[in-house]
Amino acid sequence: MAIEILLPRLGWTMEEGTLVEWIKHDGDVVQPGDVLYTVESDKSLNEVESFDAGVLRIPPTSPAPGSKVPVGTLLGYILGVGELLPVSGAQASVSSGQKTVRDEPSANHSTRSAEHRTPSTAISPRARRVAAELGVDWTQLSGSGKTGRIVERDVRAALMTGEPSIAPAFSVSPIAQRMAEDLGVDLAALARSLPGKRIERADVEKAAQRKPQAGGAMPGVDARPATAKRAPMSTTRRVIAKRMAEGAHTTAPVTLTSEVDATEIVRLRAQLKADAAHPAGAAHPAGAIPSINDIFVKIVAHALGEHPALNARIEGDEIVVVEEAHIGIAVDAERGLLVAVVREANQRTLRQIAAESRRLIERARAGTSAPDELRGGTFTITNLGIYDIDAFTPIINLPECAILGIGRIAPKQVVVDAAAEKLAIRQMCTLSLTFDHRLVDGAPAARFLQRVKQLVEQPYLWLVA
């Protein structure tokens, strides 16, 4: 019986995905657990495995790699030995290489066919990205992964060998590589004009502007300025655009700001770093040293437990208040703005939050996040302080009720005792809370922000909780 291969829904908001590439090919024998193809969903690149054994058939009507495909689209079939494609007028039998499957004995055909057919080069999405970044020609490599697939360690090992045919010619970021393909920019020519430099998106955009409209000159050489540039909107960017518009126009957003004294949490983090560097602190790996963001995750999770009205969402005509604090962290990834979710942050220690947030952020930036790691948040924090931004108006990440924007922490001269006319230098920071006035009123939101301010200025209040 033919088993249909349909594009799965990899997230509640996913309506379509981009079919990136087939890992297995038409006529290949597959087993349960084999990766069939990769698909780019809303915000991540996913490998889709087979649940069944049989022979893969990709009909001529299947979408081509690179196509945007609606959820539920038929991509192919898993067939039994000798089974025909279940399409109108199809008389083709299932074949493997140049041998017809039904001509083979059925008992152990799958194993023999997989062993004797000439394998086609396959590479994992992560290995492909690493190869692009390092400038390694992966088509010359032998894979050590399952079924001979090229994986990341093969690319990095090839780089270390320094073989002439594999030595990196230039380095390019994954998004720059995709943009170059879309805009028709010759990366090799561009690399020659930028010796020793890693090619980024901005370099490709500039080269596309200089690219002549007709043939003749090499891309990046013609100095005539273009009047406009066009680039296709990626799946990730389209999702970001849609959600930002919904967050701005569907909600009734109100933003409250408050200046807080962050001296104590700055001091706390310095002490944690010093402890990790001490021999006695060797039990705590460097990756578990909490960042300022991690401290805010802990503080916000604690405050939400006392002010649950901010940990709510609208579902139909109901307001649903969630007991667990799943805190989203805005991540500036190369593919766009992503929100990695630290689940049950209210039940985690500060070090546990630090380890989990680091893992999630690394996966988000590498484009390897699982769908569940980028959804299901109940409250989001976003920090632009590293870009020297003092205050801003964050946009609510629907369906959440609120989002906290964190500005830069900078030393300022402030009044610490008005009666004694005493001044001091303190580490000050501006917090911006945007909340949905449909769910919560101004006073409860202000009390929440006031409590966050108190927990920032007096960390012992939550450290002993």
Descriptive account of the structure:
The chain is α+β, with helices and mostly antiparallel strands and 465 residues long. It has twelve helices and 19 strands. The strands form five sheets. Strands 11, 14, 15, 16, 17, 18 and 19 form a seven-stranded mixed β-sheet that branches. Strands 1-8-6-3 form a four-stranded antiparallel β-sheet. Strands 5-4-2-7 form a four-stranded antiparallel β-sheet, with no helix packed on it. A hairpin with a 2-residue loop joins strand 9 and strand 10 (99-100). Helix 2 (125-134) packs parallel to helix 3, helix 9 crosses helix 10 and helix 9 crosses helix 11. The radius of gyration is 27 Å and the shape is globular. 36% of the residues are buried.
Tell me the major beta sheet: 7 strands, mixed
The number of E-state strands comes to 19
Mean pLDDT: 79
- Overall, the morphology is globular
Cα-based radius of gyration, to the nearest Å? 27 Å
Distance between the termini: 59 Å
Structural class, please?
alpha+beta
Number of helices: 12
Strand content: 15-25%
Q: Which blocks of ≥5 consecutive residues have pLDDT under 50?
A: 88-120, 164-168, 213-225
Relative helix content: 25-40%
Secondary structure elements and pairings:
Elements lengths: L2 E4 L9 E7 L6 E2 L4 E6 L4 E5 L4 E4 L10 E3 L3 E6 L15 E2 L2 E2 L8 H8 L8 H10 L17 H10 L12 H10 L3 H7 L7 H10 L24 H15 L3 E9 L1 H15 L14 H15 L5 E4 L2 E4 L5 E7 L2 E7 L7 H17 L12 E5 L18 E5 L3 E8 L4 E15 L5 H16 L2 H4 L2
Parallel strand pairs: 14-16, 16-17
Antiparallel strand pairs: 1-8, 2-4, 2-7, 3-6, 4-5, 6-8, 9-10, 11-19, 12-13, 14-15, 17-19, 18-19
